[in-house]
Design a protein that fits this description.
By secondary structure, this protein is mainly α. The chain is built from 15 helices and 5 strands. A 3-stranded antiparallel β-sheet has the order 3-4-5, with no helix packed on it. A two-stranded antiparallel sheet has the order 1-2. Helix 4 runs antiparallel to helix 5, helix 5 runs antiparallel to helix 6 and helix 6 crosses helix 12.
Length: 437
């Protein structure tokens, strides 16, 4: 059933085919056809892939399905075909990222350019235009170095910043020469290193052989390939590699905010190299006054201060008044007599009864909260009674207009033909027509 929907084609049929294949894998995971079903699921999204400058959702799904097939069925005979399809999908994804980076580079947005090019270099190492990616990455770092040279900064800090970006540019150019020595744009990397007065590295025979094998595995354009790409809306996968292992897990992508934060860190470290050491020295915990004061030679060490503790409350004197108050002191500290004035201590009025003769009011000395004018409001006046309804029409009487006919039929109202007219009642003609009144 899944193959039938797959051969029919179309969006709805391919969606139904995917569901059938998924159901087969769920119910028969150990069947020999399970690997083929998973391969067909990837092919469904591969058939629907668009060009790199269009929606890339189908390419992302195809990459996930092919990776799932390689991880779940590593012993299948379809593994070489799945790897090749995965390389072609990653060729499209890398082409998309590289085009976005080139766009940012034309707009002098170098942090975004660095982020996109670095993501391609880390995630898709078999990209057919990796030499262009690395050269563009080096050019972006070199542009940052040129921008630093135009800034008014201290010479020492400016030199450190220039060295940071120059070293990163040199690393990108050197990677082209060492790992992609058979690529078409290796001479561009050599020329840039020569212009920077840097020694050009020499690749090893193993690196040269690996680069030659990778470039020879790519297929060249044929006439039918160019006609197909011209007519059909399909991505260009002709130059995809046909050798090597594709990436099965994406590394952490590099994004523009990370690049911007790294640039800020480079500026801070270059312009204030001793700031970190100074911050570490000033971050020590503050010492107490007793620790800071140097002890005199021969002096006995100071006894540790007694801990604060609450003393027991003494029992009340039987002869004292019930309203007398007791004082609780803290051991180890000299009690401070409160400033008293009359029966107020510390701004609080003390109400005692007994010895002082002061009577405590019933409300405890607290005033009720409320309006100052507590006069009750006058009673609400009762509304006047409504007059009785009087019916002016005497019972038993009825207007003439409402009187019914003797024969029980409703009489039609009189119609003035001199004032109104309609389709049934015409105005009178003759002299009445000439009468203006």
């Amino acid at each position: 059933m899944g193959d039938s929907w797959y051969k029919e084609g179309g969006t709805a049929a391919l969606t139904q085919a995917e569901q059938e294949y998924k159901d087969f894998i769920t119910f028969f995971p150990n069947a020999p056809e399970a690997a083929e079903a998973q391969m067909r699921v990837g092919d469904i999204y591969f058939r629907q892939m668009d060009k790199p400058d269009r929606d890339y959702a189908k390419a992302t799904h195809a990459e996930e399905e092919y990776r799932l097939m390689l991880q779940q069925f590593p012993e299948s005979t379809l593994v070489p075909q799945a790897k090749q399809r995965l390389r072609e999908v990653q060729e499209v994804m890398a082409n998309r990222e590289a085009n976005i980076a080139a766009f940012y580079q034309t707009h002098n947005n170098y942090p975004a350019t660095i982020a996109r090019y670095q993501t391609v270099a880390d995630t898709y190492p078999q990209y057919s235009h990796m030499d262009d990616v690395l050269v563009g990455l080096g050019d972006a770092y070199e542009a940052e170095a040129r921008f630093v040279r135009t800034m008014k900064l201290p010479e020492a800090g400016k030199a450190r910043l220039e060295k940071i970006y120059d070293d990163q540019a040199i690393a990108a150019y050197s990677k082209v020469i060492l790992e992609h020595s058979a690529s078409p744009h290796v001479e561009d990397a050599r020329d840039r290193l020569d212009a920077m007065n840097v020694k050009i590295p020499q690749p090893t025979p193993e690196q040269i052989a690996a680069s030659v094998a990778l470039e020879n595995s790519r297929r060249q354009y044929r006439l039918q390939d160019r006609a197909r790409l011209l007519v059909l809306h399909q991505p260009d996968v002709v130059m995809a590699a046909r050798d090597g292992e594709p990436t099965l897990a994406d590394p952490t992508p590099t994004i523009a905010p990370h690049v911007v934060n790294q640039i800020k860190t480079d500026f801070n470290d270059a312009l204030s190299p001793n700031a970190a050491a100074g911050a570490a020295l000033t971050a020590k915990p503050a010492t107490t006054t007793a620790d800071a004061a140097p002890a005199a030679e021969g002096a006995a060490p100071a006894a540790p201060a007694a801990p604060l503790a609450l003393s027991d409350v003494p029992a009340a004197d039987p002869g004292a008044a019930s309203g007398a108050s007791s004082t609780t002191s803290i051991s180890g500290a000299a009690p401070t007599p409160p400033a008293s004035s009359g029966n107020r201590i510390g701004g609080v009025e003390i109400l005692n009864s007994g010895t002082s003769g002061t009577t405590v009011p019933a409300d405890g000395g607290l005033k009720a909260v409320g309006p100052t004018n507590s006069t009750p409001l006058p009673a609400v006046e009762k509304a006047a009674a409504a007059p009785d309804a009087v019916n002016d029409i005497k019972p038993g009487t009825q207007p003439v207009a409402q009187a019914s006919n003797a024969n029980g039929k409703n009489r039609k109202p009189d119609f003035d033909k001199g004032d109104e007219s309609d389709s049934k009642h015409k105005k009178k003609k003759g002299l009445n027509k000439l009468n203006p009144f």
